[in-house]
């Protein structure tokens, strides 16, 4: 039996220290070093032990320390300054973007995510997806974008990892006390917790809401652990990715449908919904239901409105990674809901099926999200391409290239991830605006002016810090395990603060191939045992509790560390989290990443490494396929992004490349020391990476991209479609129906070009065509020349589309179109003509799935 919630006795803060709470209850401290300094100044040891949690920290302060502090003039003036800084940040107005006519007390965008990684003290994340969501909120706050986050308050978070003596992962689930964390239960004016209920299947479940402040952005977390709820449903918000398939479905109902209800209970009316991954796709359904109920729209009009103001980001390039639920399970939870939408259950299920007519197909959350959003994107260029391939069946008429899934490459929040020691250098040489203007090329160009020696010495200090951190961690692990004193003492000698340090840390999903470096143990040992050019490895990462293959990888590494004579050159740090990540990303020399292409959608840890001057060594997957320069001037690539059918062969080939790169390039370069023991070539690479990649791979650039290409157009759509009480949404729905009925009657004929089989590069080719519009108005279609290079089989390998213009319109519905195109390079080239729908509220002409090709 667990207590519902425990209460803690807290110290009484003297009046003049009360403002400390304000600093503690805003997660701004996770990217503002001054606030952290202030806490650490009170008691550095207690602060370290509080695991970055200022609320728990203040609550742990002895009363006499507080009394003394309240008399400490120097501290009090520092407190004042820091508060001023916070207030200044929070009250800053103005933004590069404006959402016209927006009520400033209301958010425009609600960002839904299953996990958020904002700070290690709020452990409701498992990996990259959550950290990305956290960085999204932080950049939105910095850029003053009116956005809020919606997620779940997992009382046991994600699991904590320990390893058994033989290296097998075991999971612990500490129960977190929300009262001791930087978040508050949302209460109404009478001081009562704001509650709402949501139907999860047959069960009505009560929900309360926690609010965490992420700078200017509010993060709302739903919690069902309330006495009135049946136990089964109280446990709904216990663990992230913890339960079985049915619990996952229930959690997703809570996130999507509950999330929409939470907004209502909070009096918030965001116009745009951003679904970060398919987990929250039920939010789209709930919006449709509400638009029908409250605005009196019919289903079709409500879909138009909901989809036109929804943004969906997909993250998973592996089919199995996308949540799917069986039709039977869906029936138990959604039969009544489908009725409320006025849909036959089969039609409802079709929303989540790639092939709507396939009754055997399960219900896929990603497909639902794709169908309920008119703006869809992957998280790197390569992942966009992979996603278009993966979901082509949802748009059966379209060539893969035209599947309406674009890409916005992820970024990381620099101020959260750059080591303090480096921020001093950046302040001095990049200018103090490197935080705000993280995506400005001019700012990052200044990285060239950082003196080599200063950068290298700073980096060496960070490596040394990492080594002490690792030793301390290992010592702690050994003490907990009750190891022999000699073993504990030996942890003092682990790792060498001067040695080339290679880091590998991430979730232990098998496609990330954490054990690749072990594939030729002798070759690895030769590197590890070299005393003149020492090399060492630090590993960390958790495997999902049900992923035995992932756990085996951890075990292999741990056993190798143990069995070889290289214990002091290869270590595995337990319980990977944002804190461990930060130390590793600050202090390694090389960040190793060898996922099987193209399974890493983006990968963000490498970006965090890059802004700390840590060089990347990675397969050409995700972001690295965009960032890598073939002259190796910003880091190294393992292979050239080839994809293999034979995985064993691939692993062999790529591991050989990895060893060779290390032996031939990386180790010699690191130890090629010149004047002042500086590795000049290496330091130049560190700087070059900052200059070239710094401005691109930041979450400021990412959030700005979302604002420009997704949020602003979606906002405009929402305003236009809801003006006149939803009249325009109704019209758009009618228009769509009309297009769908008339579309089959489109015809293309008389497609002509000037004669001649041979063309010259860049020579313009005139094309004309006649289109039977079947009484569709010309302004409602786009007629395009679709042209490009052809492969051996005569299929397009690369293509572009040029709009044709209507020159003549005849009585019987035929219109004459013309246009030109020019082949840009020699080789086989082809073209065809196609027709797409056009409407001012349609973000992407492909998203309706209507297309007519010349036959
Ligand atoms: C950045 C980060 C990740 C994501 O790393 P990938 O390279 O995308 O696998 C995972 N976990 C933590 C703690 C991180 O900070």
From TrEMBL:
Which reactions is this enzyme annotated as catalysing? [(1->4)-alpha-D-glucosyl](n) + phosphate = [(1->4)-alpha-D-glucosyl](n-1) + alpha-D-glucose 1-phosphate
One of the record's GO molecular function terms: glycogen phosphorylase activity
GO biological processes? carbohydrate metabolic process
Spell out which residues are annotated as carrying N6-(pyridoxal phosphate)lysine: 608
Q: Which UniProt keywords apply?
A: Allosteric enzyme, Pyridoxal phosphate
What family does this chain come from, according to its entry? Belongs to the glycogen phosphorylase family.
Tagged with keyword Cell inner membrane:
no
PANTHER family assigned to the protein according to its UniProt record, in alphabetical order: GLYCOGEN PHOSPHORYLASE (PTHR42655:SF1)
Species per Swiss-Prot/TrEMBL record: Desulfobaculum bizertense DSM 18034
Question: Know the name of this protein?
Answer: Starch phosphorylase
Q: Does the keyword Secreted apply?
A: no
DUF3417 domain location: 13-122
Superkingdom of the organism of origin: Bacteria
């Amino acid at each position: 039996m667990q207590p519902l919630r425990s209460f803690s006795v807290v110290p009484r803060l003297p009046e003049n220290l009360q403002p400390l709470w304000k600093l503690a209850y805003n997660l701004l401290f996770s990217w503002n070093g001054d606030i952290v300094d202030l806490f650490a100044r009170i008691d550095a040891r207690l602060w370290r032990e509080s695991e970055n949690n200022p609320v728990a920290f203040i609550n742990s302060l002895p009363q006499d320390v507080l009394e003394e502090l309240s008399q400490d003039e120097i501290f009090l003036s520092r407190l004042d300054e820091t508060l001023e800084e916070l207030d200044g940040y929070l009250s800053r107005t103005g933004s590069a973007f404006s959402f016209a006519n927006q009520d400033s007390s209301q958010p425009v965008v609600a960002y839904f995510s299953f996990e958020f990684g904002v700070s290690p003290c709020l452990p409701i994340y498992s990996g990259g997806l959550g950290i990305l969501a956290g960085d999204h909120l932080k950049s939105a706050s910095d850029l003053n974008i009116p956005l809020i986050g919606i997620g779940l308050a997992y009382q046991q978070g994600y699991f904590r990892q320990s390893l058994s003596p033989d290296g097998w992962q075991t999971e612990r689930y500490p129960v977190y006390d929300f009262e001791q964390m930087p978040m508050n239960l949302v209460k109404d004016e009478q001081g009562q917790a704001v509650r709402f209920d949501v139907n999860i299947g047959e069960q009505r479940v009560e929900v309360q809401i926690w609010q965490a402040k992420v700078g200017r952005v509010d993060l709302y977390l739903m919690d069902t652990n309330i006495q009135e709820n049946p136990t089964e449903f109280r446990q709904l918000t216990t663990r992230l990715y913890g339960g079985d398939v049915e619990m996952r479905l229930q959690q997703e109902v809570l996130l999507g449908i509950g999330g929409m209800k939470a907004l209502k209970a909070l009096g918030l009316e965001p116009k745009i919904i951003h679904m970060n991954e398919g987990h929250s796709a039920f939010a789209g359904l709930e919006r449709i239901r509400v638009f029908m109920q409250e605005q009196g729209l019919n289903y079709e009009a409500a879909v138009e409105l909901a989809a036109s103001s929804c943004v969906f980001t997909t993250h998973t390039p592996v089919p199995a990674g996308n949540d799917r639920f069986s039709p039977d399970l869906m029936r138990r939870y959604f039969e009544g809901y489908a009725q409320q939408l006025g849909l036959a259950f089969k039609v409802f299920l079709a929303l989540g099926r790639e092939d709507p007519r396939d009754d055997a197909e399960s219900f896929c959350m990603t497909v639902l999200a794709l169908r309920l959003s008119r703006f869809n994107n992957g998280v790197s260029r390569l992942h966009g391409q992979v996603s278009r391939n993966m979901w082509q069946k949802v748009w059966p008429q379209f060539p893969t290239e035209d599947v309406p899934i674009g890409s916005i490459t992820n970024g990381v929040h620099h101020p959260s991830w750059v080591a303090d020691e480096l921020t001093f250098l950046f302040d001095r040489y990049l200018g103090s605006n490197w935080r705000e203007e993280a995506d400005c090329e001019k700012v990052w160009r200044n990285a060239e002016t950082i003196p080599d020696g200063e950068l290298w010495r700073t980096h060496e200090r960070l490596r040394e810090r990492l080594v002490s951190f690792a030793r301390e961690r290992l010592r702690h692990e050994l003490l907990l395990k009750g190891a022999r004193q000699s073993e504990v003492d030996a942890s003092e000698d682990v790792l060498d603060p001067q040695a080339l340090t290679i880091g590998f840390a991430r979730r232990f999903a098998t496609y990330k191939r954490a054990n690749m470096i072990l594939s030729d143990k002798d070759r690895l040992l030769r590197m590890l045992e070299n005393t003149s050019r020492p090399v060492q490895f630090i590993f960390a990462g958790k495997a999902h509790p049900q992923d035995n293959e992932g756990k085996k990888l951890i075990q292999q590494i741990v056993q190798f560390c143990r069995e070889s004579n290289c214990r002091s050159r290869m270590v595995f740090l337990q319980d990977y989290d944002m804190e461990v990540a930060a130390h590793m990303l600050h202090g390694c020399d090389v960040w190793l990443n060898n996922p099987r292409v193209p399974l890493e959608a983006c990968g963000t840890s490498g970006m965090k490494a890059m802004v700390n001057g840590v060089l990347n060594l990675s397969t050409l997957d995700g972001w690295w396929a965009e960032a890598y320069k073939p002259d190796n001037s910003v880091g190294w690539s393992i292979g050239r992004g080839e994809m293999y059918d034979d995985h064993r062969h691939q692993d062999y080939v790529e591991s050989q490349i990895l060893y060779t790169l290390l032996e031939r390039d990386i180790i010699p370069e690191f130890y090629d020391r010149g004047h002042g023991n500086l590795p000049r070539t290496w330091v130049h690479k560190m700087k070059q990476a900052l200059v070239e990649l710094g401005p691109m791979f930041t979450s400021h650039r990412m959030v700005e991209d979302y604002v420009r290409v997704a949020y602003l157009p979606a906002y405009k759509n929402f305003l236009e479609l809801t003006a006149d009480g939803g009249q325009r949404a109704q019209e758009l729905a009618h228009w769509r129906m009309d297009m769908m009925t008339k579309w089959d009657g489109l015809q293309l004929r008389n497609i002509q070009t000037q004669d001649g089989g041979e063309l010259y590069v860049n020579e313009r080719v005139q094309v004309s065509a006649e289109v039977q519009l079947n009484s569709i108005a010309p302004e409602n279609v786009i007629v395009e020349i679709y042209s490009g290079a052809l492969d051996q089989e005569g299929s397009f390998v690369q293509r572009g589309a040029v709009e044709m213009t209507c020159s003549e319109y005849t009585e019987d519905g035929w219109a004459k179109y013309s246009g030109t195109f020019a082949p840009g390079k020699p080789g086989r080239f082809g073209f065809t003509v196609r027709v797409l729908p056009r409407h001012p509220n349609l973000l992407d002409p492909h998203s309706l799935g209507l297309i007519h090709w010349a036959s």
